[in-house]
Amino acid sequence: MAPEPARRVLVTGAARGIGRAVAAALADHDLVLTVRRAEDVERLGAEVPAAQVLLLDLADTASIAERVAGTEVDAVVHCAGVEGVAAAAELDPGLLAGVLAANLAGPVELTRVLLPGLRRRGGQVVFVNSTAALRSFPGWGAYAASKAALRAYADTLRLEEPAVRVTSVFPGRTDTGMQHRIHARAGRDFDPATAMSPASVAAAVCSVLGAPDDVEVPELTVNPVTHRG
Known about the structure:
CATH class: Alpha Beta
CATH topology: Rossmann fold
Order of helices and strands: EHEHEHEHEHEHHE
């Protein structure tokens, strides 16, 4: 069940991947969509003409308050993120800082800025996290650490803000550009048959947003179906 049309929803990382799928699933609603690249502003604005499209680099935490000044929403769906794959022996401070800024500090700061409105509206915060927060893999130290920390932040936010419903969604392997890039760097082909579509993850997010007002979904894990012959 989708949220009521009157609700206003901010979706980060809306240019592609899961964020774009969430924006498409909520196209009939009052949307604020954020993108990191300037060239995506016009394109996304043409694709979703009723939406407000904002240029927002979550890694630049100092600019977030100014970028979203005056914005008040009923829900925020955090989809933006970066991978930053590197072996532990090669994980330099600069790479780690960049991953933590985009995947943790940015969402935390954006949530802080939007919290007054979310409290007033009895809103929702949905963090599209990753199963990497639950189980890491070789080369994913920075990414998994950022996602595990984001889960801990969501748990704390849920305790501190009783007027706001907070959910962490943990998608497993999803057919996104991120997965294709990770596999290409490792010299492997990515098989979409082993993954969910971004639209399937977006449907799970919409189920959270559409939950009755007296229901909170603290965590939701979604994985691709494994067919056994």
